[in-house]
Amino acid sequence: MSADEKVAVITGAASGIGWALAQTFARARYAVCVVDLDAETAKKRAGELNGNHEGYGCDVSDEGQVERTFAAVQTRYGRLDVLVNNAGIVGSQEPSISQDMVYFDRITKVIINGTFLCSRAAFHPMAAQKSGAIVNVGSIAGLTGLPRRNAYGAAKAGVHSLTRSLATEWAQHGIRVNAVAPGYVATPMVQGLVDQGKVDSARLCRRIPMARLGTPEDIADPVLFLASDAARYVTGVTLSVDGGWAAFGDAGNASEQ
Ligand SMILES: NC(=O)c1ccc[n+]([C@@H]2O[C@H](COP(=O)([O-])OP(=O)(O)OC[C@H]3O[C@@H](n4cnc5c(N)ncnc54)[C@H](O)[C@@H]3O)[C@@H](O)[C@H]2O)c1
């Protein structure tokens, strides 16, 4: 590892937005730690990046696994510059009255507990270096009300809140904490909802001023910006990356389809 090579941990990096993030950070010359529940794919993905990258199997909602993973990263690289808290699961789309607490707890554990546990584990190496950047992946679901998305929306609103509280506490240690709030992005997560008939992509596109779903790369580039020195005076913000979804408040369609 060269003396100036920075290290980025990206959670949920085996698929979708996380995989685009891993490729984007690798192109920006970071050593990328591909962290995912799916250990086998995480290791395979790290190999595909073809460089000084490593794959780790880890459930971000499990305190012991998170601590062990960040210790392994420290042993392997001896530093940590960027953490992207991207791992997430989609919520039940059932009517609220049918939603059970097992599902509710799992979603909040992965999204809120996972973001907190990984951020806390990243604090020690970043504070020791007196510099670091954390970028959390929130959602439009945490900014607006989406019917039936109770646990998911509440968890993402929690992520936006954690972003602000950690940013204000850790600025004194040289650690910036920001978030992005993506709109609908064409990933396996959203494709699964389309396949189940729970999301109508043509209808969604009419609600988006820019008239298309996002791509994983549309999200990865703003995350790289927030993690970079170009955003050195930015902390505590949640940046909407949604083709104008959150800005639109008019009646009817936002675009012609
Ligand atoms: N796709 C969208 O439209 C959209 C919109 C807004 C926000 N987001 C958020 O972006 C993030 C990525 O979503 P995606 O669409 O790429 O999903 P995805 O399902 O394609 O990928 C999610 C990845 O996270 C991993 N993961 C799940 N639970 C985990 C856990 N407990 N520990 C570690 N890894 C775990 C999965 O194995 C998978 O590789 C999520 O936080 C999601 O909520 C997605």
TrEMBL record:
InterPro entries linked to this entry: NAD(P)-bd_dom_sf, Sc_DH/Rdtase_CS, SDR_fam
Domain of life, source organism: Bacteria
Molecular function via GO: oxidoreductase activity, acting on the CH-OH group of donors, NAD or NADP as acceptor
Similarity annotation: Belongs to the short-chain dehydrogenases/reductases (SDR) family.
UniProt-listed PANTHER family: SHORT-CHAIN DEHYDROGENASE_REDUCTASE, SHORT-CHAIN DEHYDROGENASES/REDUCTASES FAMILY MEMBER
Name of the protein this chain belongs to: SDR family NAD(P)-dependent oxidoreductase
UniProt organism field: Undibacter mobilis
Source taxonomy: Bacteria, Pseudomonadati, Pseudomonadota, Alphaproteobacteria, Hyphomicrobiales
